[in-house]
């Protein structure tokens, strides 16, 4: 598939764990296993700055609706809130285990994050209201939901901030109410761990990426299963195009097995599927290792990928891409 020469962002020493655009798409945030949180201009790949403070691998990052605050979760057992513009650390929420997922709701007032099940501690999904300084000061969430069965590996806010859609280690997807914490809906379409969940631009759909080598599209309110995109390798991340009926998936082998194969056999390409026909129509090479995360720019004219090789690549589509339609 045709892409214009990518912009290579070299700001991490270890593998990328997540990338995130802000709502306008002018900034791209990247986090990796090297405790740095970087922010870049997406138009030219210039690094704006780094949010310093974490002392362990950073697993997740999110930015609020008006690009005021940044939220990060790390293996140093903390979730941190930053001032986006100045890089100042505004709050540290300490936990008993690593913070795996985090996110702002649509208003930017409520944050959620999940902790890992490790060292004898259970997995919890925590909700804080940033409008109440007491909650932050006392490190007391207004809601903390234990997940005893299987730990949360990926989570996003649903539409209107009413619930969180969480993917679990056992392949389950749950909707947790942000008011009561109860499970509103529960489905199990995947057979293995869910590595990533992303929403469509209007939040009506979510796409899941799983270790079972598939990515699946769901209705975010009913959790009705809509489409399946099959590959031969574990899928680490999947994203929905904001302007085309396309999805991009990224994956590859487990990092342990990569050394024994050449890059060609390793299948380190981003793969494009038609969202309606479930057919693959293109691949983009680039990373020297599995792709850990993919995300479309909000205007749909480019996408970014972060790899096990520690690089973030911004790929701009060739104009012909937008004329593309699969034959029915």
Could you characterize the architecture of this molecule?
- It is a single chain.
- By secondary structure, this protein is mainly β.
- Helices cover 4% and strands 50% of the residues.
- It contains 3 helices and 28 strands.
- The protein has helices at 133-138, 255-258, 263-266, and strands at 3-9, 16-21, 27-32, 37-41, 47-51, 58-63, 69-74, 78-83, 89-94, 99-104, 110-115, 123-129, 143-147, 152-157, 163-168, 173-177, 183-187, 194-199, 205-210, 214-219, 225-230, 235-240, 246-251, 270-274, 280-284, 291-296, 302-307, 312-317.
- It has a 4-stranded antiparallel beta sheet, with no helix packed on it. The protein has a 4-stranded antiparallel beta sheet with strand order 2-3-4-5, with no helix packed on it.
- Strand 6 and strand 7 form a beta hairpin.
- The chain is globular, with a radius of gyration of 18 Å.
User: How much is the radius of gyration in Å?
Assistant: 18 Å
The biggest beta sheet is recorded as: 4 strands, antiparallel
Mean pLDDT: 92
Name the helicity range: under 10%
Strand percentage: over 45%
The geometry reads as globular
Strand order of the largest sheet: 1-28-27-26
Query: What is the count of β-strands?
Result: 28
The first-to-last residue Cα distance is 19 Å
| Uncertain ranges | none
Oligomer: single chain
Structural class: mainly beta
Total of helices? 3
